[in-house]
Amino acid sequence: MTMPTLPSLPQGYRAIVIGATGAIGSALLAQLQADPRCAQAVGLGRHTTPAVDLDDEATIAQAAEQLKAHGPWHCIIHAAGMLHGPRGLPEKRLSQLNYAQMEATFRTNTFGPALVLAHFAPLLAKRERSLLAVLSAKVGSIGDNQLGGWYSYRASKAALNMLLKTASIEMARTHPQAVLVALHPGTVNSALSAPFNGAEIGRPAAEAAADLLRVLDRLGPEKTGGFHAYSGQELPW
Q: Distance (Å, rounded) from C-alpha 226 to C-alpha 60?
């Protein structure tokens, strides 16, 4: 596999990956750190310094404030998310919906990333090309939903897409070269997909990360606010 680079970004660009301990996040961070054009690539998570805990707004604000002094930043990727957890697997039927699981799913997939957008998007370079991506999911597409099920996960990703789209409109006024996008990584062999035969039907995280970086590199400012698959396909809302 050819190691991707981001030639569309300025030489010496700086990058941040949030959720850098997950399968895709760690693969993205490794590839950015290996890019000779990248001057600095920082991975953030619950146990990093600074720390980012999506359940603790103060950590998000503090990490952004600390990294602001090292900017401007040209590539920010939010790679954290959850499909299942202590509250159980994704709901297949309406009768399985419960407040605790819905709240946990939205905190990780929607509310946390929303605060990341609020605190980290202003760190993007104002006068140079810059990229900000959040990992979404094709099942968050309302137009593409043909099978039903996975209620909380689908809804949390659909809400994330709306937040990203809305943020892109605001950011375009002050950062005209910025590209904010939601990305679908496909099925990846990871802990998230493990209960759903991820090891059999998924592909390596390094391959998914390379695909996502290639898609990001090809998107111009006119594509800000979009929703794209790892293949480059533009997905319906």
A: 24
| Phi and psi angles of residue 14, each rounded to the nearest 5 degrees, phi first | -120, 140
Query: Which of 122, 235, 105 lies closest to 183 in space, CA to CA?
Result: 235
Q: Which residues on adjacent β-strands are paired with residue 131? A: 75, 179
**Distance from C-alpha of 51 to C-alpha of 194, rounded to nearest angstrom:** 26
- Tens-of-pLDDT digits for all 237 residues of the chain? 556 779 999 999 999 999 999 999 999 999 999 999 999 999 999 999 999 999 999 999 999 999 999 999 999 999 999 886 666 688 999 999 999 999 999 999 999 999 999 999 999 999 999 999 999 999 999 999 999 999 999 999 999 999 999 999 999 999 999 999 999 999 998 655 555 554 565 789 999 999 999 999 999 999 999 999 999 999 999
- Name the pTM for this structure: 0.92
Which residues are 15's β-sheet partners?
Answer: 41, 75
Q: Where does the chain have alpha helices with state H?
A: 23-34, 57-68, 99-106, 112-120, 151-174, 198-201, 205-218
Whole-angstrom distance, CA of residue 62 vs CA of residue 67 = 9
How many Å apart are CA 197 and CA 201, to the nearest integer? 6
Angle at 92 between CA 86 and CA 98, to 5 degrees: 50
